């Protein structure tokens, strides 16, 4: 099917800075073309200082919605008229839907995308215990979604001097009011970290430790931290397989990187905008195979 821009084409896109490296335009435009949908996805380099003007302009132009990336995920929140439960608790938005009345609904699809990628790999968080390393934007979204999806317990490891500590404490307080999940915030101490991982079914690295070009870095010192029933996930997708993932696989764990999280958070945004399911198998083959 030939892909054409028409006089009726609806705008969708990405707001943030920088955005030139993003795979999102390719991902969404291929999906629109595959389903014959008259939408076009563009990336806009916008910082916090120009965000309100950009959003006002998009509403005036009849855009359907936007993905929002750093540094705008928190700054977009007060520009929304309503928030999803996950966005409200986490205090961050990565997807906005512009309704017919020009009001804006803010969502965070990072956590939902992460757990869709987990289910793709055969893991379901419900009733399980998780250890998460770090609690930045993506980590907080995963933490929130895990509790909302029925995780039994979560241990969050974060440095005591982290700029995210106060916000993480506030998020955990909200989650303990709204869910039955048992959540602890812990400082990095190797005996304690090993103990918590050994009693968990999922380990998630939500930090940038191990990202290219520093691909030999890893927060887990050695394979003694793993056990065969542990699933290990890294949100990093460059490289496709981090040292953490390689170590976990060699130890006999199910392990995977962040490329499918990127795919499935995009698929969730796609569904919110269009009401259609993204053809994820096609996009996976075209953009997320090891040959790409």
Structure in a nutshell:
The protein is of the alpha/beta class and 292 residues long. It has ten helices and twelve strands.
Largest sheet, if any? 6 strands, mixed
How many helical elements?
10
SSE order, as H and E?
EHEHEEHEEHEHEHEHEEHEHH
Query: What is the molecular shape?
Result: globular
Question: Compute the gyration radius: what is it?
Answer: 19 Å
Average pLDDT score: 94
Oligomer: single chain
- How large is the share of residues in beta strands? 15-25%
List the helices and strands and how they pair.
Layout: E1 10-16, H1 24-35, E2 39-45, H2 51-61, E3 65-68, E4 82-83, H3 85-90, E5 95-98, E6 104-107, H4 110-120, E7 129-133, H5 137-148, E8 153-157, H6 165-178, E9 182-186, H7 190-198, E10 202-205, E11 231-234, H8 243-250, E12 254-256, H9 259-274, H10 280-287
Parallel strand pairs: 1-2, 1-3, 4-6, 7-8, 7-10, 8-9, 10-11, 11-12
Antiparallel strand pairs: 3-5, 5-6
Helix pairs in contact: 1-10, 4-5, 4-9, 5-6
